[in-house]
């Protein structure tokens, strides 16, 4: 590896810490000085480095993440007041939030919330009910089989990850490439003996976030005391109650699986998703173009 590549990896390592800090403090007042401290870059250079590697100013990045989070929460919490959602996403002024939301999504928060409630009522009248919530093989429309779905209490997981920002729907090879890098690193560090799980975390809704801005972590589980460096970061997935749905499906059917989970699977058994990031476990390699994916959605009983 040449010096330029080493330097870039070192920069990515620092920015990964900034991304994690923003996600964890999205409701707080974030400023350049704090972000520069997290990155260990000089505040005089941090903004230019961020723009060069991310393609947005730190301010625009934070604003976009907040608006996209608000969009998600307005769908997740239809009974919540718009003011509460705005504050939860770091906006102190409702008028500013409403104006920025409208500019970004071409619809006001009030109209968006009303539209979402109407769509939610339609979902509730669907014929798909709790009969799909079992361990028997079931067919969902044009999809491959839903193998099983249940509520489980899952433990905390320590994960090592490589972050990817950009399109992944049109770049299916990116998963194999990043997992190969991660498992190569794990092998060199004697971590394969722990039989790591392969996990993918998508931080953004692909229907909302532009493709070139979508964030994804490709991960493996590791022991708590594992040391990481360079482009490989480390974080935890919290313990808790999860709706766990195992599918065998084609890559192009993944969005349909998500739609079924949120529109039918979780609502039909008296639970609702909570404000934590879901993740996907890949327990085995693809076979003849069919993926086995275990979707893990943090939930709470209604």
From TrEMBL:
Gene Ontology molecular functions: DNA-binding transcription factor activity; sequence-specific DNA binding
Matching Pfam families: GyrI-like, HTH_18
HTH araC/xylS-type domain mapped to chain residues: 16-115
SUPFAM superfamilies recorded: Homeodomain-like (SSF46689), Probable bacterial effector-binding domain (SSF55136)
Database matches in SMART domains: AraC_E_bind, HTH_ARAC
InterPro entries: AraC_E-bd (IPR010499), GyrI-like (IPR029442), Homeodomain-like_sf (IPR009057), HTH_AraC (IPR018060), Reg_factor_effector_dom_sf (IPR011256), SmbC-like (IPR050908)
Keywords for the protein's UniProt record, in alphabetical order: Transcription, Transcription regulation
The keyword Transmembrane helix is assigned to this record: no
Protein name: AraC family transcriptional regulator
